[in-house]
Queue: 2 jobs
Job 1
Amino acid sequence: MNQIKSIADNLSGIIFHAEDKVSIFFHEFGLDKRVTFSYFCFISILLLTLPFSPILVVFFSFFILVLFSERINTSHRRILGMLLLVAYSIIISSRQRFISQSDDMNYYYWFYTNISANIYNWDGMVYSDFLFYFFIKSLKILFPVTFSPDFFLFLFSFLSSFIFFIWLEFFALVSFEHKYHSMILAISLFYFSYFMSTQAVRQMIAIPLVLIAFSSSNRLNVIFILIISTFIHSSSLVMYLLFYLSRFNIQRVFVLILVAFGVFKLLQPVLIGAIGSGTIPNESLFKMIYSYLTWELGEDHRSFFFSMLRLPVFSLICFLVFWRSSFSIYRNMFFIFLLAYLITYEFPFVPLRMAMPTFFVLIGFMKIVSVYPIKNLYRILIIVVSLNFLRIQLSGVVGDSSGFNLYHSFSVYSFKPFYYLNSILDFLINE
């Protein structure tokens, strides 16, 4: 046992020594922070590149933010962050759609095209998650054109990622050393699941709002934002409760969640019988609960839910290795949602809802937080990984027809400026 401990101590010593050396390198590396003209040139080049290739803007913005984190001031960081998320949203707007029954875009676009543009006619309006559908209705009322599916994909992706950007900039980053703000912002945005932002649209908009409510110190703001997020997606209250529990001792929270779930499992047969017999009205919310409690999961669902567990593995290992060094509130948040995912595994859709915050919205943020004690070593790793990802994207190879292939509507690059607007702003061209 002593020998194993000695080996572990030596290994950790080598790792932290390497971390110190890499930290010194990055501190000295890059442009002098006084030469703001250099960053102005970088940003100008990216703006000129955006009309011809959004994918290059994504990666160059990412590389600059990660490599020169110590040298980038707040204004430049925010400009580069906005360029990154706008360019990525443009790319995602070209994903395939209408080829899968499970694609939420099918219903949202059908709703948009079939709802009345008359402000006095509310026939067909969906009153659950009212604000989201009211937003779509408002687009139909305010604009006398028919927006393209590409525009909706861009809009949903931009909206969800922009709210997440607001949380990062004004709430999350203040917990970290200022010189690493750019790196954390870049990695968080780069991994933010833009695929889900055009699939589980309502929840991907609601969760960043819940994060803002959770991080706000003003009670009125908390209540107001929670009301908005709840009327966008009804799971917001549950998400907020789980976020709030991350403030407390993790062991006690685990016991509380397991006891609550155990009581629920004991009452499950009674609840099924009460709803099925009509004792509890089988309407709306209770009808949905009844379907969840009685639905038999198919093997495809089980395989999908199990395969999703690979997403948090990196953060899981790093949180365990650096348990005492990590930020306890985010570490607790990660494990609470992971536990919620595991114990709701047998119910349809519920595990996916539980997975959304840490598996998709916060996946990049959790990676950098979990590995924060050796963040500079991770910085090298993420650059290497992203370079390989860029190589794959520029190859332009389209995979199987999964419904989430990129560059379906427009290519990786073109010598025709703003070529992607032909698709996103198709409604203007056709008018």
Note: The chain is about 70% helix and 0% strand.
Job 2
Amino acid sequence: MAVVKKIELSLDLTRPTDEIVESIVAVLSYFPGRQLEILQQVDHRVGEMLATLQPKEDPETETADQTTE
């Protein structure tokens, strides 16, 4: 039978950035040698979320802005 490791976290939601970073560090401590792989996957997922939240720029407007400079 596979052993499942669990970790319970209590987060202070008034400090979201610090708490997220501390949570990542806590989880990474259980995966020595895989930190880079895990952080790259997290980076990819965060990048995808940022891309969906950022407003899309109109390529025609961007081109017009560059030609007027």
Note: Residues 35-53 form the longest helix (19 residues).
